[in-house]
Design brief:
Structural class of chain B: mainly alpha
CATH superfamily of the largest domain in chain B: MetI-like
CATH architecture of the largest domain in chain B: Orthogonal Bundle
CATH superfamily of chain A: MetI-like
Helix content of chain B: over 70%
Distance between the termini of chain B: 60 Å
Number of helices of chain B: 14
Strand content of chain B: under 5%
Radius of gyration of chain A: 24 Å
Helix content of chain A: over 70%
Largest sheet of chain B: none
Distance between the termini of chain A: 31 Å
Structural class of chain A: mainly alpha
Order of helices and strands of chain B: HHHHHHHHHHHHHH
Largest interface: A-B, 103 and 99 residues
Oligomer: heterodimer
Number of strands of chain A: 0
Largest sheet of chain A: none
CATH architecture of chain A: Orthogonal Bundle
Shape of chain B: flat
Number of helices of chain A: 12
Number of domains of chain A: 1
């Protein structure tokens, strides 16, 4: 009994440096922004209820940013999940040169965005390579990054960078599916379609959940590509929440910042919660 | 010779199987080209002379004064092999245009402390999360995971306010300190250490090992792979940093190359590809030497439970 208590105290000591830092830089200020979001200003400290939140919701820039971000994630995340699963399944089909292909597909994640942005510019600029090709085919050029197609381009850049990471996660999950189960289904004459949905899909469901969450988080990082390609003032389709935050930091409006951050945290928590619930239903019978 | 029906069926299914493999290989080939080409182009173009680059891509990087750009029918040439291979871009970057080297150095002194201390502190924390699992610990781990899952748009606000209070806004510390305490490494290393067999730890304890002995003689050596892989993942994430820099350190002098590279002047386009390549090199080298570790690290990151 005494030993257990001693163990607890000692092992808590190992956590202390990390916990102190996380408390100072994340937890404490997070509680602080909850307070900021509910008062009129940090000095007079009058409780104003949801006024700051309403102010953020009524802000046109925020609405545009939220809508663009949501639309981008809604397109990019499902594509990232589906395509990386496809890549993983192709590699798991025992094709020749599997490990080489794995290296190739993974390589974009190691290339810094800043380094590759030059090539994206060369490809998608108004005077870029893509338009050169189109012009030679007699199609009139489009200023891609300043057009309605801009978010399609950004989805492509996102997929280019993120598919490899997701693919590795799926490959690990696919190799963990009991071979005997698939073979038994084969013997029973189950079609490839049923083998996928009724066996593989269920075993993959925890990974599907994780890859979806990860892709969602990474979809917010696409700001990097957009910023490095188009600077502070992108096409209105590409004005994302990070742009909105940057501008709001510029005005040092703590109330607005806090309310906006809390709204986003809440939305993230809700989405992740829903995904967890969904996964719990699909993967119910396969988890030990 | 007549074949039985089942033989014919087996042959048919084998042929279908081969066709499937061939198709999958073909598709993988197509994907591989798409995935590799941008990187290879950047690398190849870094060996072009400045005149060749201006001739090939000048139209792209020319900026017209009043926003609106004119379409010039001039062709842009994507070229894989330079007419003349030269190291002049590198020579200029290294010896005549020290600005880029300074920014590269800025990247190094931001990223290196973050990687070393984030992983180091996380190893201790992970040990603690592995050793005892009470209700408080599980709640704390949940908080760590919650923080980890929040995007920059959320975490930068608390980070900024603390940096403001501590008076470190605008300095490197405002980026390094939140980076050091970001919970990603703790999460991964906790998962790795929890896979160490309990019996091993019990045995060490019975042999008279104290907590420090168990940590340094058993847990650290056994999670060496995980530590190295998490270090690679943290490195690549911060080598790429953009968001924090724009908010915490808008002053261009101290900015890392990951932000500064895009501000390259029209006049220095010749250098751009060389600088881009130099910035890729540390990451690519890590990738080539540590791919197995990277894959291991990614696999560890999968799944939020246990």
């Amino acid at each position: 009994m005494k030993r257990r208590i001693k163990e607890r105290i000692f092992s808590f000591g190992y956590l202390l440096p990390s916990l102190a830092g996380v408390t100072v830089f994340f937890i404490a200020p997070f509680i602080q922004i909850i307070r900021y979001a509910l008062v009129d200003n940090p000095v007079s400290n009058n409780f104003v209820g949801f006024e700051n939140f309403i102010r953020v919701f009524n802000n046109n820039a925020f609405r545009r940013a939220a809508a663009n971000t949501a639309r981008f994630s809604a397109i990019a995340v499902p594509l990232a999940v589906a395509l990386s699963l496809l890549l993983a399944m192709m590699l798991e089909a025992k094709i020749p040169g599997k490990s080489k292909f794995r290296t190739f597909f993974l390589s974009p994640m190691m290339v810094p965005v800043a380094s590759i942005v030059l090539i994206w510019q060369v490809l998608f600029d108004y005077n870029g390579a893509l338009n050169s090709v189109l012009a030679s085919l007699g199609i009139s050029p489009v200023d891609w990054m300043k057009s309605d197609y801009s978010h399609v381009i950004v989805v492509l850049l996102f997929l280019w960078k993120n598919l490899g990471y997701n693919m590795i996660l799926f490959m690990a999950a696919l190799s963990n599916i009991p071979k005997a189960l698939i073979e038994a289904a084969n013997v029973d004459g189950a079609s490839a379609f049923r083998r996928f949905w009724q066996i593989k899909f269920r075993f993959l469901s925890p990974t599907l959940l994780f890859v979806t969450i990860l892709s969602l988080i990474n979809s917010f990082k696409v700001f990097r590509e957009i910023y490095l390609l188009t600077g502070n003032y992108p096409h209105e389709n590409l004005y994302l929440l990070q742009h909105f935050m940057n501008n709001t930091f510029g005005n040092i409006d703590y109330q607005k910042l806090s309310a906006a951050a809390l709204i986003m945290a809440l939305v993230m928590a809700i989405i992740i919660g829903i995904l967890f619930l969904a996964e719990g239903r699909i993967g119910r019978d396969v988890e030990q | 010779m007549t074949r039985t029906r089942s033989e014919r069926r087996a042959r048919g299914s084998r042929r279908r199987h081969n066709v499937r493999i061939a198709l999958a290989t073909l598709w993988c080939g197509v994907f591989a080209v798409v995935f590799l080409l941008p990187t290879v182009l950047t690398f190849a173009n870094s060996f072009m002379t400045e005149t060749e680059i201006t001739a090939n891509y000048g139209a792209v990087f020319e900026k017209n004064e009043k926003g609106g750009k004119k379409f010039i029918a001039e062709q842009v040439n994507l070229k894989l092999i330079p007419d003349k291979v030269t190291f002049s871009q590198y020579a200029t970057t290294l010896f005549k245009s020290p600005d880029y080297l300074f920014k590269f150095w800025n990247s190094v002194i931001l990223v290196l402390p973050i990687v070393v201390f984030q992983v180091g502190i996380a190893a201790f924390a992970a040990y603690s999360f592995m050793r005892t699992r009470g209700r408080v610990k599980e709640l704390l781990l949940f908080v760590y995971i919650f923080v980890m899952l929040m995007p920059y748009q959320v975490t930068l606000v608390p980070n900024y306010m603390v940096a403001d209070k501590l008076g470190i806004l605008g300095t490197r510390w405002s980026i390094i300190l939140p980076g050091v305490f970001a919970p990603f490494s703790v999460f991964i290393l906790t998962k790795a250490m929890r896979r160490i067999p309990k019996s091993l730890i019990e045995a060490a304890r019975l042999d008279g090992c104290g907590e420090w002995g168990i940590f340094s003689k058993i847990c650290l050596p056994m999670s060496k792979g995980a530590i190295f892989s998490v270090a690679i993942l943290v490195f690549i994430d911060y080598w790429n940093m953009v968001e924090q820099v724009l908010i915490m350190m808008p002053d261009a002098d101290a900015q890392p190359l990951s932000v500064f590279l895009s501000q390259i002047n029209t006049g220095e386009i010749g250098l751009a590809f060389a600088v881009a390549t130099i910035y890729m090199v540390p990451a690519i080298l890590l990738f080539l030497y540590g791919e197995e570790y990277l894959v291991e690290g990614i696999t560890y990151s999968g799944g939020l439970k246990g």
